[in-house]
Amino acid sequence: MSQPTPASVETLLEALPYIREFHGRTVVIKYGGAAMGDEELREAFATDVVLLKYVGLNPIVVHGGGPDITDYMQRLGMEVKFVEGLRVTDEQTREVAAMVLLGKVNSDIVRRLNRHGQPAVGLSGEDGTLFEVTPVANTEEVGFVGEIERVDVDVLNHIAEDFIPVIASIGVDRDGSPYNVNADEAAGKVAAGLRAHKLIFLTDVEGWLADPGDEGSRISRATVAEVEERLGNVGGGMVPKLRGCVEGIRGGVQYAHIIDGRRPHSLLLELFTDGGVGTMVTP
Ligand code: ADP
Ligand code: MG
Hints:
Layout: H1 7-22, E1 26-31, H2 39-54, E2 58-63, H3 66-75, E3 82-83, E4 86-87, H4 91-115, E5 120-124, E6 131-135, H5 139-142, E7 146-151, H6 154-160, E8 164-168, E9 170-172, E10 178-180, H7 183-194, E11 198-203, E12 221-223, H8 224-230, H9 238-250, E13 255-260, H10 266-272, E14 279-282
Parallel strand pairs: 1-2, 1-11, 2-8, 5-8, 11-13, 12-14
Antiparallel strand pairs: 3-4, 6-7, 9-10, 13-14
Helix pairs in contact: 3-4, 7-9
Magnesium ion binds at residues 184, 237.
């Protein structure tokens, strides 16, 4: 009689077709919110990204860091204000935001990836002129908040050959003045610019919910057309994510996912197991 296959081996066998499919493919990961808020989740995230690189994928991390910026602003006694979800960013705020995003959040991610065995390189939209921005329409009200006009992925292609790029969502305008950029928008545009295979948003809900008050109402799959049709009824932080999905797919990304970053190793679950998690957006 043959021995039963141990569960650990079953898991590896389940992953094999996915590892084969994704080998050499680029996956852009928007990292933020819940998955960043807790030490165990930060470690799990770093382990997952390093594992992706080891098995032959090409992971690119794009991150925000809103809660940390708010925390440091409060420590400095600065006023924190939002208008329609955008942080009001005067000169001082812009300076603190850049210091926190690059000096703290970005370098923490890089350090963890390095420690887990895959060297990472931290950069922002200023490096290699990655993101060129124009001020958002209501710049009078919100200050230095930019919309990405142009993405130059050249620098990423160079870095990603040997390292994991970790990108802070800061852009510069034509005159070289830095602007705050929404990290979801940045992730969508990077994924489109690279024509990534997948774009994955880690967030603090199970996915896109038909009813935001009901966690049981997750939409497991939607086409770009369905997303656009329903975008008017979506609110809060889900809007830039869904826009990012649309932007990515219009730019040639095959699949965009919004998954629950509160769950440790949700990235591995999404990529290497049969049971899909979160919301998947397809062309
Ligand atoms: P992140 O830090 O991951 O960007 P955000 O708070 O910006 O998180 O965005 C996720 C939030 O979007 C959810 O926690 C939820 O409050 C809000 N949201 C609004 N509408 C929806 C919806 N239809 N489905 C899911 N989340 C929604
Ligand atoms: Mg957000």
